[in-house]
């Protein structure tokens, strides 16, 4: 049976020490992340710290790449910061699949519940189809009155009522500067959430078909979005909507969308720090991919890395996630040199980037915020133990191997 001799053990020990103390190479990136020419300027490499802490540079570097907001040059619509919202987009408008209730006093032929047809019209017995897609109940009701007189069913326009009984889901195409551009379905009943009382009542209303719901269902706006000129295309007509109020805590016209609408969010081609916060149109949160630590924990369960750690609010920064993942703290002599690597992706180009930060450097620098990037949906985080911890792990393995050799 082979037993390692003293010389071999010494060689293994020297090799292990050298391996434990070896500094890993810096990650190579296609984009010049270290020079600040990546999606976030916060990715750039550390610069020499001045005697007096300088003003933070990253927001200014990011803003320097921005093109002017397109909405400030004018448009056909807007919000609080732009032109008045076009009347055609306001109020509760009908779309195909909506359920309406028509009532005429002392009439047995026309009253009843009707569904707006797939072609966007309201079909009543004996009358030509009445356009309903994108119109208000009042506009459709006026057309019904005229049709009843024109058909000879009434001598004068009758008194009638047309109320919405239930709103159908709407399918909306969302593209541009959102994290998940796709066709989304918004509004309607979800799963077993059935409110029989509301469905039986007249005058239904919904917030589920709002513009903000469509943007969040498409992953939320990206940090490079130009909120001053969001484009809504409806029935071949383009409208420009200013949504900056949604991020500023001001009122904005959260209009109701219809099946067939198309939303396009343009890009300012830059990272905007002020968009990295929760809002009605931001991503609902971030699901992180976290690696396990060898030391001081052996897995997610003993580290208490559960769902609340892997899912963080939008606007969370790199160091907050590092602390949340138990990558910081412990014995200074063995843990102070710990580092963490962030794996991210430029949502405009699809190109990935990897950056690594020394935890203690981030803790001690006064300008730490300049190098503390915001987390984006789909980001991954890997923690690396210090050289002392690595060496102790290697020595533990050598010790186990020696015990096995002695027992053979």
List keywords for this structure.
five-stranded mixed β-sheet; membrane; about 400 residues; Polysaccharide biosynthesis/export family protein; 3 domains; 16 strands; Outer membrane lipoprotein wza fold like; alpha+beta; four-stranded mixed β-sheet; wza like fold; cell outer membrane; about 15% strand
Would you kindly provide a written description of the structure presented here, covering whatever features stand out?
It is found in: Cell outer membrane. Residues 1-27 form the signal peptide. Belongs to the BexD/CtrA/VexA family. It comes from Pseudodonghicola flavimaris. It is a single chain. The chain has 408 residues and is of the alpha+beta class. It folds into 3 domains: 6-65 and 284-394, no CATH class; 70-91 and 168-269, Outer membrane lipoprotein wza fold like, CATH 3.10.560.10; 99-166, wza like domain (wza like fold), CATH 3.30.1950. It has 11 helices and 16 strands. The strands form 5 sheets. The chain has a 5-stranded mixed beta sheet, with helices on one face. Strand 8 (230-234) and strand 9 form a beta hairpin. Helix 1 (6-21) packs antiparallel against helix 11. Mean pLDDT is 82; it is low at 75-82.
List the helices and strands and how they pair.
Layout: H1 6-21, H2 58-63, E1 99-103, E2 112-115, E3 121-122, E4 130-131, H3 137-150, E5 161-166, E6 170-176, E7 182-186, H4 196-200, H5 211-217, E8 230-234, E9 237-241, H6 244-248, E10 262-265, E11 286-287, E12 289-290, H7 307-310, E13 311-312, H8 318-324, H9 332-335, E14 339-345, E15 352-358, H10 359-364, E16 380-384, H11 387-407
Parallel strand pairs: 6-10, 12-16
Antiparallel strand pairs: 1-2, 1-5, 3-4, 6-7, 8-9, 8-10, 11-13, 14-15, 14-16
Helix pairs in contact: 1-11
Domain SLBB: 208-265
Subcellular location: Cell outer membrane
Organism: Pseudodonghicola flavimaris
């Amino acid at each position: 049976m082979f037993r390692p001799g003293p010389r071999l053990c010494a060689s293994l020990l020297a090799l292990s020490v050298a391996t434990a103390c070896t500094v890993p190479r810096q990650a190579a990136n296609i984009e010049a992340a270290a020079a600040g020419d990546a999606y976030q300027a916060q990715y750039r490499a550390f610069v020499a710290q001045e005697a007096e802490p300088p003003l933070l540079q990253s927001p200014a570097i990011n803003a320097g790449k921005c093109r002017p907001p397109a909405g400030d040059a004018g448009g056909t619509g807007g919000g609080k910061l732009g032109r008045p919202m076009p009347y055609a987009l306001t109020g509760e408008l009908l779309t195909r699949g909506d359920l309406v209730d028509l009532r005429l006093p002392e009439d047995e032929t026309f009253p009843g519940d009707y569904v707006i047809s797939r072609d966007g019209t309201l079909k009543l017995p004996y009358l030509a189809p009445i356009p309903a897609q994108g119109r208000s109940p009042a506009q459709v009701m006026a057309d019904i009155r005229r049709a009843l007189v024109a058909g000879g069913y009434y001598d004068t326009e009758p008194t009638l009522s047309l109320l919405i009984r239930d709103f159908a889901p709407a399918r909306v195409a969302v593209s541009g500067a959102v994290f998940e551009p796709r066709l989304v379905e918004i509004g309607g009943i979800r799963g077993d959430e059935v409110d029989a009382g509301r469905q039986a009542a007249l005058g239904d209303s919904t917030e589920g078909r709002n513009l903000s719901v469509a943007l969040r269902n498409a992953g939320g706006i990206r940090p490079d979005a130009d909120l001053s000129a969001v484009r809504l295309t409806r029935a071949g007509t383009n409208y420009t909507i200013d949504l900056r109020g949604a991020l500023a805590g001001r009122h904005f016209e959260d209009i109701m969308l219809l099946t067939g609408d198309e939303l396009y969010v343009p890009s300012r081609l830059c990272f905007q720090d002020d968009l990295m916060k929760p809002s009605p149109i931001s991503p609902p949160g971030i699901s992180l991919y976290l690696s396990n630590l060898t030391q001081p924990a052996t897995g997610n369960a003993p580290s208490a890395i559960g769902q609340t750690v892997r899912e963080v609010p939008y606007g969370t920064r790199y160091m907050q996630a590092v602390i949340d993942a138990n990558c910081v703290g412990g014995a200074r002599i063995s843990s102070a040199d710990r580092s963490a690597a962030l794996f991210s992706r430029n949502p405009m180009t699809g190109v990935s980037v990897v950056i690594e930060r020394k935890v203690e450097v981030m803790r001690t620098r006064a300008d730490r915020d300049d190098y503390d990037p915001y987390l984006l949906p789909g980001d991954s985080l890997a923690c690396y133990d210090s050289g002392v911890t690595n060496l102790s792990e290697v020595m533990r393995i050598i010790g186990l191997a020696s015990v096995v050799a002695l027992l053979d």
